[in-house]
Amino acid sequence: MKDYNSKTALQFYCVLLAYFLITSCTTVFDKAHGYRGPIIVTIETEDGSVPEFPFLIESVYTESCGHSSCGIDSGYRYFKTAYANEPVTFPRERLDLLQPNAYATILFKVTHPNYHYNVFTRGFAPTDADDPIHVTFTVKPFAEQMKKVAGWATGPKQDMQNFTPDSREYKKADIRYRQARFNLGDMITRHITVIKTFYLPHFSKRMQQRVIEKYQPIFRAWYYGVPETDCWNKMTCQEHILKPREAEYEGL
After folding, report:
1. How many structural domains are present in the chain?
2. pTM, whole model, 2 decimals?
3. Which of 85, 92, 119, 213 is the most buried if burial means most Cβ atoms within 10 Å?
4. How many CB atoms lie within 10 A of CB 217?
5. CA 212 to chain centre
6. Burial of residue 241 (number of CB atoms within 10 Å: 0-12, 13-18, 19+)
């Protein structure tokens, strides 16, 4: 019985040793072990146009929770600028993953004055240094996104025409209409803020001035085109819309 236990223990340690040897060999000889990149990113526009100014692209690896990303920044943070249809390379890096060869979730945040801000999520497996990953992201013009969001108010507005102002149905449709208009104004305000506080600081003073000169009048028109833009609090949105505009356009 004693000999049997000794043999069993010996077999267990042999298997354990073999596992560690295989794992070590994989780590040593597999040059892709734990590494991601290089990643070559290309930005395309939905309308096929090529804007005058470059896109700002921020990359960041996020830790995973369960079956999806937690959104917790955990490395691979780079800022790159690139014009439409011109590839830009993000470097090769070994990520600090619990399982080095598991898929890594990397976010690419794309910003531009004339396009809707978007966060693209991709999962990447380990790759060799001489086998770059190519990804293409398509962005929507901000004016088109405005039309889409503005369309959310169409249904409630039509419903209001089918009921009397003192009816419960009319009041419910009115609330939904005002909320939809608030969403549009809020989106415009956030877009202007992102360009002012996040996009512009990554460029030279001269480039900033060029961007401001071009987009200042465009942003002003967008801002004042939706009187409800200053309806900042959803709980009092309905009251704010009925009052004269209080917040003035601060500009870029």
Report:
1. 2
2. 0.77
3. 92
4. 9
5. 23
6. middle
